[in-house]
Amino acid sequence: MNDWCEPLWSSMQWHNYWKDMAPVLQREQPRGAHIADLVTPDGCVIEVQHKSMSATEISGRELDHGNMVWNFDARHLYRSGRLAITGSLNGLVTFRWKNHRRTIRSCRRPIFLDLWTMKGTSERVVLKVGQLQRDGRGTAHVIPHHSMRLWISAGIPYRPLTDLPYYRGPLR
Question: Residue 37: which H helix or E strand, with range?
Answer without folding.
Answer: strand 34-39
